[in-house]
Amino acid sequence: MLQPEIKKFLLDSIRIIHDYPQPGIVFRDITTLINNKEAFALTINHLKERYESYDLDFIAGIESRGFIFGAALAYALNIGFVPIRKKGKLPYTTISEKYTLEYGFSEIEIHIDAFKNAQKEIPNVLLIDDLIATGGTALAAANLIKQAGAKCVESCFIINLQDLKGAEAMRERTKVYSLLDL
Ligand code: AMP
User: How many CA atoms lie within 13 A of 42 on its CB side?
Assistant: First the structure.
């Protein structure tokens, strides 16, 4: 568990932008967490400690901010990283899922063979993104992980916007861990 003063430090490192990308949205901008070397290192080191004992085979990160935390953590844990990308960005054969967002809708994809180089028949995957709001993106990503033949053992978010209840919905599917519950 993160100590309250560390939580406050991380929370204070995240910039708030009102009415972006559209009126009414309070956007949590994590670029000011990752350009702060103490905040970024605290975040990745904390997640490394948590997940060292999980017997993970891969981290799957959601485009684009999930790539930043996911790739850093995968390197720290010495496991592979799998990108889940917006439609049309992955070059090989994909599986795709449509979903709704807090602001709009979208479609994400994973490579069909993303988890094929694992030692296990059903590899353990940690799903990661910067933020969970309605949970539409994370649920679609968990579906993709399953369809690609792996098990989503937990989903991890830096920020959980509790009022939007995405984490609650996601908990019916997999364990959920968030650093900052707002
Ligand atoms: P959702 O599918 O509603 O849980 O939305 C989560 C996705 O949208 C994540 O990839 C977030 O990066 C992004 N997102 C949604 N709401 C916000 C917000 N208020 N601030 C920053 N990112 C957001």
Answer: 20
132-179 tens-digit pLDDT: 999 999 999 999 999 999 999 999 999 999 999 999 999 999 999 999
Atom 11 in ligand 1: residue holding the nearest Cα: 131
d(CA 18, CA 160): 17
Which one is the CATH code of 55-181: 3.40.140.10, 3.40.50.10490, 1.20.950.20, 3.40.50.2020? Answer: 3.40.50.2020
Residues with CB under 6 A from ligand 1: 25-28, 62, 65, 101-102, 129-138, 166
CA 52 / ligand 1 centre spacing (Å): 27
pTM greater than 0.90 (yes/no): yes
Residue 71 identity: A
Q: Give 67's contacts (C-beta < 8 A, 6+ positions apart).
A: 61, 81, 83
To test the pocket of ligand 1, the residue of 102, 163, 181 to mutate (highest count of ligand atoms within 8 Å of its CB) is 102
**Annotated domain spans of the chain:** 55-181
